[in-house]
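Annex B, item 7. Sequence and structure tokens for protein A, then protein B.
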Amino acid sequence: MFWEFFTFELKFRLKSISTYVYFFVWVAFNFLNVASESFGPIGNANGKILLNGPYANAVYNTGVCLFGLIIIAAIFGTSILRDFQRDTYQIIFTKPISKFAYLGGRWAGSLVTTVVVFSGSMLGEFLGTLAPWADHSRIAPNHLWWYLQPFLSITVVQIFFLGSLFFAVAALTRKIFVVYVQGATFFMVYVIGITVFSATRSLERFWSGIFDPVDFVLLDDITRYWTVVEQNTLLLSCLLTLHLASF
């Protein structure tokens, strides 16, 4: 039964207009990050940092995770509440269906859907490098691993943990209001927390980076003293290993 719930969730999402809207939101987001210097955080930074380099990709993926909190909550949360909204749970729960099959199938389908939706950020970045008005002096030849590695090590990991959290909250509360509010609440609390942390200029960097749920602090801790050359050549996995080794 796991496979049936999993495939049903995927088919349902393929028929949903919101899935394609979310996908093209991330396509547009990263397209503008690369094609328009005044849009993204890298364009306004040091003019020698590559707009499609390893450091830029890490920043883009971290930003996608932050602004995508509401989308993650919506996809994972509604998947488990759909049966309660439409009163189909009364039929499903009378069948010999295990918790793993029901919950696992819904969760896995939501995970795959969210990863596919957020992969639009990679497509958008690639299309941004082709824009004729972009600053091509800051655009390197496209390397698939420069796009794929930050996406797998940052975005997919964040989707897994944050999506699981939102899924569990929705399954326990069974309230659609909580589903849509939890993502927005998490976003606001995080932004306020990161603002306060930056304003206080705390000297404590290790534990704040480790427990940062979106990884903005951790990314800053790892790359704060790196040169432009290192930011344009080193992937996050290499930086993370060196960062942890220093403690």
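Protein B:
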Amino acid sequence: MTYYGEMLPIDNVTFYSLVLLTGCVAGFLAGLLGIGGGLVIVPALAWLLVSSSHDPSSVMHVALGTSLASIVFTSISSVTAHHRHGAVQWPVMRRMSPGIVLGAIAGAILVDQLNTTILQMIFGVFALLVSLQMATAWRVNAHAGLPNIESLSLAGLIIGIVSSCVGIGGGTMSVPYLMWHGVDIRRAVATAAANGLPIAVAGAGGYMVTGFLSVGWQNGQLGYVDILILAVLVSGSVILAPLGAKTAHRMDTHRLRQVFALILAVIGMRMILITWV
């Protein structure tokens, strides 16, 4: 069986240069379009890890775990900015957090039991759904007020599981859910960014622990999180995210969202199709 397609091997300098570029692109797009960096980081790292002769049976595990670990750093920056504007609904975030943390940990445990082929399929389907959402500019209209703490925690549990399984901060699910319950778009985005921090911390921690029990510490890799790749990714995203945010205020991003939706659709289809090769 072929894992993630075939790629020509690349040297270390080229590898880490491309990792840095991935971080820059992820950070810039996160600032420009408000999309999660994981949607860029996960497929890029999977391709790069295969090209660096990494064990093909765990490329998706490492890509997912390292992506979540990088989101820890970008979330801190994002949440700080939103908090300064008073947009984060902290009571809502606190009520969702227990479920989010449990879900993110459960997702990491689940991923440890799945092989790379299944993980590629899951990510591919998710990428196609996000692509459809972006291409159609689908928005949710409020249908009800905020539910009770049990319902918020259950929603957090589901969001945490899915986010951990696909290596993202969960904004693509948290924002529509909060808008459905009457939270305006600005506060929904800010609160979703706050939710991304416990998802990333709990998810990355889960990938470290489950990965350590499976593969231990090897070649700078703590479980399913590669520390050096993480450092390079974060360097790129931290530098370019502010530029993306500034650019977003100077141009119409609608057409760019359409282009990115097409790119996501291609990525999603490729990841699905190669599982059958």
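Comment on protein B: Residues 1-5 have pLDDT under 50 and may be disordered.
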